[in-house]
Amino acid sequence: MDWFLASRAIVRRMKTPEEWQKWLEQDCPSPRDSESGLVVLFAKRSTESSTSKARQTTEKSLLGGTEVELPMQENFVQSSHPSDMETRRQNDEKQDSYSAAVRHSLRTIPFSRNTFELITRAFYMHSSISRVISRADIPVFTHTKAVMEDEHGSKHDVSVFNLRTSNAWPVDLALTVTYFHHCNLKFAFIFGCDLKVEEEILSRLRLAGDDATHPLLLPGIIVEIERRRHVQIVDDIVNEVEARIHQLEVSPDTEEGMTTSQMEKSNKDKRSAWLNITYTRNCLQSWRKQLENIALHVDEVNRILLEGYGWSSNLTTPPPTPNAYEECPLINEEEIPIDLAQVVPEHSALCHEQPSERFVSIGCKIKSRTLAIIEEYDDKIRECSLRIEGMVMATQWAQGETSLEITKATSRDSKHMRSIALVTMLFLPGTFFAGVFSMSFFDWSGNNGQPLVSKYIWIYVLCTVLVTLVTLGLWYFLNIYRRRLSASNISAV
């Protein structure tokens, strides 16, 4: 089987539906022509602004010695402000404040329904990408085998790779790659690109050279971009949690000087930090699982290549209908210019060489790098787990220190009470007898100079005895008898 090595790159930008239709009908590669290559379409977000001059300069510098075909200057979307590039960078820095609606903007593509229908047919886009994009909060990687029918009615075996990153944070991406085995032709559609992501992907494709022909290289590039995003997110949340852990060391005396609103805000921040790092760890674990799937499917792609572009016996997913790619689940009413990076194939000295061994070697590199990234994610997951456990431990320590302070304060109060009780014991007899003998029941100097005792002293004795008995009875009923009654009722139940 002939193998066409892609040796030059063309970057094009279409603005109008007529330009799209002309390119798709005349210049877009077709699997019927048995041309190898990689066709990548970058679909920016609906909120993304155009920076034509900066983009033109960037494309030339990124592609280096490759061929760049751009429309005439009048076709560019001109910036109305000379500092548009700086404004664009400021907008990128404000991505953390995106609303939930913007985060779901992968479902809003930057061109009209008719244009998108033409692209889906020309790019042989599989309908499974719709389900992948809909799972916004969950990262997904899928590999589906299918049979696609070209414009001339010929059927071809293809592999469809779909990848979607989580929209829990800004700058989420989605990718679909349709890989034709018989001619090594790949169509890729990347959703949600901004200028920085597009620059990085083009730069990595240029550096990859001939390795860009592997069907899993683009998913590998998305994995690298997502890794950098996750590293920054984990570092930020770890620093925040460590700051909250230090706040747990505040003594009870300091907390007494805080207002109620300050206490509520501090507690809310601590809870939010714990919830954020726990959610981040769960997301990292979900994404790690998808990385394992990518590494696993590298082996499956290698088996496909070694079997002469036949299906591996271990691939059990049933193929979809031949015309499944004709579905159009994602639409938008507006027409916004996008960018297309196309690697146009050329014959080379390797035209008649079997690509299987080369692809297997490239696949081993991709798998090795994916496994290395998985190990890095394991470290990040352990960092999150360490901070979660550290926050739990710090909370327990803070509670233990608070309990110790309460115990010490209780001990000090107990010592004071013992002192008070001792003083009371010393002065109570004297106070009692002083009060008794000072009553009018006793007359120490009577008419004849003799002490007299009133005949009504029995009233004092009777009232004292009755009140004492009532007090003791109430104490016994409230503190002893009622508790025993409750305990007996519970045991009976």
From TrEMBL:
Transmembrane segments in this chain: where?
420-442, 457-478
Where is the region Disordered? 45-99
Primary localization class, coarse: membrane
Family annotation (Gene3D superfamilies): Magnesium transport protein CorA, transmembrane region
State the annotated membrane topology for this chain: Multi-pass membrane protein
Q: Where in the cell is it found?
A: Membrane
Basic and acidic residues composition-biased segments: 83-96
Entry protein name = Uncharacterized protein
Which organism does this sequence originate in? Xylaria bambusicola
